[in-house]
Amino acid sequence: MSLTGAPLWMASITTTALANANYYTVQYGNSPKYCRKNTGLLGLKNPNDGTTENVYASLPSPANFRGNVIGQCHSEDLAYLAAYFDTARNTEMGQLAAH
Length: 99
What we know:
Largest sheet: 2 strands, parallel
């Protein structure tokens, strides 16, 4: 999604659906302080997950923010574990989705 397309997409999400949405954000760890080298050269500001600046990763209320995990990245082949490999969080998110 782009910074212009995301708000259009979000406008189609109902308040009821948002109230049922649970999400985390992730970002790089302490050493190295990046998910992908040279993201600053590409204009990606810190903190980020290698593809998305955390400032743009939040959903509007009434979505349920479950926290920011330090030491994970958006996808594979970056400096830290890809967020979707976090089995404990995947289990928690599955349990939350079942309600």
